[in-house]
Amino acid sequence: MRSPDAVEQAIAKATDAASKGRDRESRKLARYALSLGPDHPGALFRWALELSGEPELAKYYLRRAAALGWGDATFELQIACVLFDLGETDDALRLSQRAGRHVDDEFVYLPGLVGHTLATYLARQGRGSDALRVIRASLALAPGDAGLLRLEERLAGEDATPAFAP
Prior knowledge:
The protein has helices at about 5-20, 25-35, 40-50, 55-70, 75-85, 90-100, 110-125, 130-140, 145-160. By secondary structure, it is mainly α. The chain is globular, with a radius of gyration of 15 Å.
């Protein structure tokens, strides 16, 4: 594995590209991050998000990410959210329970991060109204989260149908 910083930078760029609707760039950067760190939990997770059209493969990468990311409650909750959306409710519940065991007094729930991850995934599935509901619920817990606000603006602007109405 190359520098963990290089992997993290590639993941951050992929996430940023995805939030701006640059899907091709996001996929390319996620693949690059995975090539730099094939056992990096974040790279595995980012790549799984890119595989939304291939749910069985996405589940494989999510499970690997969960196994390697053991002990990081925020990360485990993110993975659980995506697994749940893929219909893996038992796995999502087990992972959420595991995350709960890793929470200590200093744990900070990051609704912006989890909400952004789940909303991006839902939007890629063509479920824009569900994505907007997740964003709005997350904004209630993390008002002013810049990433969520940008994603909300982009998704709301993509379709002015009643499904996207507040």
